[in-house]
Write a structure and sequence with these properties.
With about 60 residues, the chain is of the alpha+beta class. About 15% of the residues lie in helices and about 15% in strands. It has one helix and four strands, in the order αββββ. It has a two-stranded antiparallel ribbon. A two-stranded antiparallel ribbon has the order 3-4. The longest helix is centred in the N-terminal third of the chain and has 8 residues.
């Protein structure tokens, strides 16, 4: 069973935890309706992706 034999230094722990922070998702404007959407995803407001209507959205 893996049991730590020595205490890890603060710098070693902080280096490992530096990558675990949360980041806000990057958003881009939809070319059709100008609402924010995630890149490479269908727009939830208008239903378009890559200039084509993918899903019919109820108004």
């Amino acid at each position: 069973m893996g049991v730590p034999q020595h205490r890890q230094s603060k710098s070693r722990v902080r280096k490992r935890r530096a990558m675990a922070k949360l980041t806000a998702p990057s958003l881009t404007a939809c070319p059709q309706c100008r609402k924010l959407r995630m890149p490479h995803h269908m727009c939830p407001a208008c239903g378009y992706y890559d200039g084509k209507a993918v899903v019919a959205v109820a108004e």
